Amino acid sequence: MTIKMIALDLDNTLLDSHKKISVRNERDLRALHEQGIKVVLCTGRPINAIWPLIQQLGLTNDDDCTINFNGGLVVENNSKQVLFRQGMGYENIHRVYDYCKQNHYPLNVLDFESVYEMTDLAESGYSGFIHHIQYHHMPFSQLPHDKEYSKLIICTNVDVVEEAQQNVPQTIKDVFTVTRSQPYVLEFLPPQVDKAVGLQKLLDHYGWDFSNVMSFGDGDNDLGMTKAVDGGNGVAVAMANGVDQVRQAATKVTKSNDEDGVAVFLEDYFATRL
After folding, report:
1. What pLDDT does residue 134 have?
2. Burial level of 122, CB count in 10 A (0-12/13-18/19+)?
3. C-alpha angle with apex 230: 38 to 21, nearest 5 degrees?
4. Cβ–Cβ < 8 Å for 162, 77
5. What residue ranges in 111-264 does DSSP mark as E strands?
6. pLDDT at residue 151 in the model
7. Which of 143, 166, 189 is the last residue of a domain?
8. φ/ψ bin of 78: left (φ > 0), alpha (ψ from -120 to 50), beta (otherwise)
9. Cα(1)–Cα(191) distance, rounded to whole angstroms?
C-alpha cells in the first residue's frame, strides 16, 4: 500500500471550531503536497467558497483537484476544468419544498454556481454559513426550471434539523441521497452521489485506487468515503469528535479537530517524510 492521496473533509475535520486551518495542519499538508502527495479537499461547498483554503495549502498546481458538493463535482483547481459532474433536474425538487412548507422548515436550492433561498418558507441560516457565492432570494414559484441543481439544504437550529432528518418521507428518500453534513445542515443530493463517488472519479483520473488513499472525516456525509477507503485497504481516519458510524467504519481514529487531529496522525504515519 502506497499513499498517494490525502482526502480531507473540512468542517469539524481539517477546520477547527473557528473554521480555520491550524498552523500545524497547514505545515504538514504543505510538506506532503510538496513531496508529491495529492492533497484533496472533499466538501459539500462549491470551490469558490473554499478558494482561500486552497490557496492557504498551496493546492494550486495544474493537476491539483477538489471534490465539491459532497461528490457531485470534481474540478481542477486552477483551470476549473470539470472532471465529473452529477446534478439533478427540477422535476423532484417540489417534494422537498412541500415537505419544508408543511413543517415550517427553511430551504436553499443550489445549482453549481449559486444559491437560491426560498423566501416563502422559514428563514434559513445558510447565508451566514457559506460565503464567496452568489445568493438569489425568491419564492419557490420563481425557481428556474431549466437549471441543473447540485443539492437542496435545510439549514437551521440543530433540534429542528434532527427532527427534519428523522421524519423525511420515503417518497423523498426514493429520489434523493439524504445526509447530514453539519449538526445544523441537512442535505438532499442526487441519488447515488456521495464523496466516495467523487473520489472514485478522481482516482480513475489519476489511474489509482482506494488503496492509495488516506481519508479524514467526521460526519454522516463522510461515511461513504470512509467505508470505501477502508474497504479498498487504504487508511480511513476518523476524528475523535466524529459521529459513531464514521468512527466505527474507520481504519483508525485520531484526535479531535481542535487538537490538530489531522496533523497528529500525519506526523505519526509519515514520520520519515515530515
Report:
1. 87
2. middle
3. 45
4. no
5. 114-118, 134-138, 151-155, 177-182, 185-189, 213-217, 235-239, 252-254
6. 96
7. 189
8. alpha
9. 32
Please choose, from the candidates 76, 21, 8, 23, the residue with its C-alpha nearest in 3D space to the C-alpha of residue 53: 21
> Among the three residues 189, 211, 245, which one is the final residue of a domain in this structure?
189
Mean pLDDT of 191-218: 96
CA-to-CA distance for 250 and 239, rounded, in angstroms? Answer: 9
Nearest of 116, 134, 40 to residue 84 by alpha carbon: 40
Q: What global pTM score does this model have?
A: 0.93
Count of residues in the chain: 274
Q: Domain range for residue 220?
A: 5-86+193-269
Give per-residue pLDDT as tens, 132-173: 788 999 999 999 999 999 999 999 999 999 999 999 999 999
Percent of the chain with pLDDT over 70: 99
